[in-house]
Amino acid sequence: MKKPKQKAGVEGSVGKTATAVIAKPRNETFTSLAALNAGIRKAVKEFNDRPFRKRSGSRSSIFETEKINGKYAMLSRPSDNGHTPFGDIWLSYSPDMKYWGEHRHVMSPAPFDQSAWQCTKVGAGSVPILTEQGWLMFFHGVITTCNGFRYSMGAALLDREDPSKVIYRSKPYLLAPAAPYELAGDVPNVVFPCAALTDGDRVAVYYGAADTSVCMAFGYISEIIEFIKNNSL
Length: 233
What we know:
α1 crosses α2. Strands 5, 6, 7, 8 and 9 form a five-stranded antiparallel β-sheet that branches. Strands 1-2-3-4 form a four-stranded antiparallel β-sheet, with no helix packed on it. Strands 10-11-12 form a three-stranded antiparallel β-sheet. It has helices at 7-22, 33-48, 180-183, 221-230, and strands spanning 59-63, 72-77, 89-94, 101-107, 121-124, 129-131, 134-145, 148-158, 166-169, 191-199, 202-209, 213-220. The longest helix is centred in the N-terminal third of the chain and has 16 residues, at 7-22. Helix content is 20%, strand content 36%. It is α+β, with helices and mostly antiparallel strands.
């Protein structure tokens, strides 16, 4: 069920579907109800057969590193139009990386009183890392302050067979804007995880700082997982 704050996005999606499917046969002439039904079915099939296109407002599309149950998987944060005051993480599957479906909700912003730094919106960061305990996903969380959005980095552990299931999710952030280059720039107060490289248990996370610099933070996968287990929402 969609939340009330997503009402505009839902209405926009319904409107686009109506335009693509219902309005298309409007200029055609049908001599029977059967012919009309056939025309609608044709329009629906053409709509569903279109290759996946990332919408301009859909942000943070992240691909899993290997197939899950024989399918490719992608994490994304659907949005109605560019920067929005909301955002959830979703999971989609594809047999060929062309057509995407089976959309599953993964994570919503946390309540302010439980974890304020991620109460406005969340989005997937680097490609999740497969561990023995599940998929380790670095993500960004946003809080709306009197000085605008503030982006920080957290981590979550997703189920290995079904990544739409969140096993653990960090209540405190792992990294937040503190250094001068994270506090000041084109977009101030931003730590935005983008990529991660592993070498055994060691992980290097590349992140954007204030939308101006590219930075790197190091950690250990085992310690991060233990941290989020002990400090989970």
